[in-house]
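TASK: fixed-backbone design
INPUT:
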């Protein structure tokens, strides 16, 4: 019964559209017949009441025939156009009635749930477990279901490849590592911050592949990750080209967008380094520092005075 009731407005709308369309077509036909009859009547009156004389020539007869037939043809072209317009209006009215029938009135009963976009889909909440009586007469809540596990954390090796970014479409290992790293929220923040800074630096002619910083000992990086600053980590300032450091310093002072992006990147890289330093051996620490992101960190840390 519910489905039949929900279909009634749609059916009624279609019937109204069909009836109104048929009435409009009939009116157009009647008007066309009336105009045709009136025109032919005028032609007959003119023909009968016209002056008598010599029989018309062939050209005159042709012109007379065209003069009679052409208005009739124009009338029925107009009739056909009017009928087509009536059909379009009937279809529009039926469609409008169908849309009105699909709108909920006073609730969403009878309508299917709206589909969710894959990117916005939310898992349905898990129903709470029922309570069961305790042998001592008390009620006790059953154990809560375990929370859904988070996305698997990226491995240090994958993180190093991701922070260096792919060399091109053929660098499949780096592309796969980057895809995995972006599923880790903390790693994704550091990667996106590094990408923004490296892009801005490249826009100003500073390319990380052109930097050749003096590598600091892994122990210095570990001290930095542990929170040491100042002379204890001065060896991190490995950029020997003063012009590059000056160019980065000028961007920090003169470009507010770059300054905000740089400080955000320095914070994210610092947090990421603190997170993975204990999981990396000395070779891993050195490899992390030599990535494009690591070189950008060294440049900006030296320009801001974090490592100096």
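OUTPUT:
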């Amino acid at each position: 019964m519910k489905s039949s009731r929900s279909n009634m407005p749609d059916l009624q709308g279609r019937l109204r559209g069909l009836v109104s369309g048929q009435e409009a077509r009939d009116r157009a036909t009647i008007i066309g017949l009336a105009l045709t009859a009136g025109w032919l009547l005028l032609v007959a009156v003119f023909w009968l009441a016209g002056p008598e004389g010599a029989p018309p020539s062939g050209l005159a007869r042709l012109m007379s025939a065209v003069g009679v037939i052409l208005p009739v043809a124009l009338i029925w072209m107009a009739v056909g156009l009017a009928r087509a317009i009536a059909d379009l209006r009937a279809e529009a009215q039926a469609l409008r009635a169908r849309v009105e029938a699909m709108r909920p009135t006073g609730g969403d009963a009878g309508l299917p749930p709206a589909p969710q976009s894959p990117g916005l889909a939310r898992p349905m909440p898990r129903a709470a477990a029922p309570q069961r009586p305790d042998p001592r007469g008390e009620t006790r809540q059953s154990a809560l279901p375990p929370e859904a596990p988070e996305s698997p954390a990226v491995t240090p090796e994958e993180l190093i490849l991701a922070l260096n970014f792919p060399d091109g479409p053929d660098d499949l290992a780096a592309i796969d590592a980057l895809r995995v790293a972006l599923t880790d929220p903390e790693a994704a923040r550091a990667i996106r911050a590094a990408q923004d800074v490296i892009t801005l630096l490249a826009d100003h002619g500073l390319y990380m592949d052109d930097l050749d910083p003096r590598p600091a000992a892994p122990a210095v990086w570990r001290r930095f990750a542990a929170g040491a600053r100042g002379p204890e980590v001065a060896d991190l300032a490995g950029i020997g080209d003063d012009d590059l450091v000056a160019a980065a310093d000028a961007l920090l002072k003169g470009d507010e967008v770059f300054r905000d992006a740089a400080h955000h990147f320095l914070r994210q890289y610092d947090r990421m380094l603190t997170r993975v330093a204990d999981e990396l051996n000395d070779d891993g620490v050195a490899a992390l520092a030599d990535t494009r992101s690591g070189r950008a960190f060294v440049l900006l840390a030296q320009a801001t005075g974090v490592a100096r």
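COMMENT: Residues 2-49 form the longest helix (48 residues).
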